[in-house]
Design a protein that fits this description.
This protein is mainly α. 29% of the residues are buried.
Length: 320
């Protein structure tokens, strides 16, 4: 019963928060600003959105092909179409229950290609760790390039003393957690250590497999495609078309973090993007419209790909 309640809350609370934020932010806009936002969305050049989604599709294809390398490394084969449809369903499910998509990928692989769940799930976790490393590199790069701009923005939003206080507390908690993890003899901690050790070993094994360079190149391309699909969308609106690459990279990183730590960015993505773009003198209405265009097009694409994957999986595979 508790698990059921927890699952329901994990779905409804982010959605309710998203609805609240949409209502909250839109109540702050004047009628004139709302008309501007609608006007921007209506007059946008959706040719660039189509190009962006084409680039997104190449990223999905690359991710599906990359997965086959890790599966082959542990002695299993899966048809490319199975990998692609499994990824399509996973992205769709992640919009409902965060991180449920990873489990669904392993289930699809087991059902249609006979790969044991734990083996398939292990390859997915290894991929996610590699993706996390690349994401950290992207975030770090954007922070370094735009340090002064972000520093001024953060100092305006959060007082320096409060920021230092939170930083010290976070540092103390992090060091305490690391020391506790290293020296604790509790059975549950020992089990976690074994799991972590296994994940590290599995991740490092990626660099020892025969196809490590194609795997690494696909991993890099996936993130290049993410940046490219975001960058091309700036040309959909005249107000954002002149943005510098630094501004685009900062907005991309913030948008990626919002999506990663929320329910697909629902109710948060457009306003987070707008707030960042204002640092680069993009009007609030234009930034908000741009955020909605990017977010809505990506979500629509995920629904399309995920829906087709659900429909075509049983039609293109014999039940194992």
């Amino acid at each position: 019963m508790k698990k059921k309640i927890s699952r329901i809350l994990s779905i409804t609370l982010p959605l309710l928060l998203g609805v609240f934020l949409i209502i909250y932010y839109y109540n702050k806009f004047t009628e004139k600003q709302l008309q501007e936002i609608y006007g921007h969305i209506k007059s946008a050049d959706y040719t660039y959105i189509a190009i962006s989604l084409f680039i997104a599709m190449t990223g999905y294809l690359s991710r599906a092909w990359r997965w086959r390398y890790t599966l082959r490394h542990i002695g299993y084969e899966a048809p490319f179409i199975t990998s692609l449809f499994a990824i399509g369903t996973s992205y769709l499910l992640n919009l409902t229950i965060p991180r449920s998509g990873e489990v669904s990928r392993a289930i699809v692989l087991k059902k249609y290609s006979g790969v044991p769940f734990d083996k398939g799930f292990g390859t997915i976790i290894s991929e996610r760790i590699i993706d996390l490393i690349l994401m950290v590199i992207c975030v770090s790069g954007a922070m370094i390039l735009q340090f002064e701009t972000l520093k001024d923005y953060i100092s305006e939003e959060i007082p320096l003393k409060l920021l230092l206080f939170y930083g010290i507390i976070a540092g103390i908690l992090f060091i305490s957690a690391v020391l506790f993890f290293i020296y604790s003899k509790l059975p549950i901690v020992q089990k976690i250590k074994i799991k972590v050790s296994g994940l590290i070993e599995g991740t490092l094994s990626v660099f020892k497999m025969p196809n490590k360079w194609p795997f690494i190149l696909h991993s890099i391309y996936i993130w290049v495609s993410y940046v490219a699909m975001f960058y091309i969308t700036i040309y959909a609106l005249p107000e954002t078309a002149q943005m510098s690459f630094e501004a685009v990279s900062t907005a991309f990183v913030i948008g990626s973090l919002v999506i990663a730590f929320s329910n697909g960015g629902f109710g948060t993505y457009p306003f987070a993007i707008s707030a960042i773009l204002q640092l680069y003198n993009i009007p609030e209405a234009s930034g908000t419209a741009f955020g909605w265009i990017v977010w809505a097009s990506q979500i629509a694409f995920i629904f399309l790909l995920g829906g087709l994957s659900f429909l075509l999986l049983p039609l293109t595979h014999k039940k194992k």
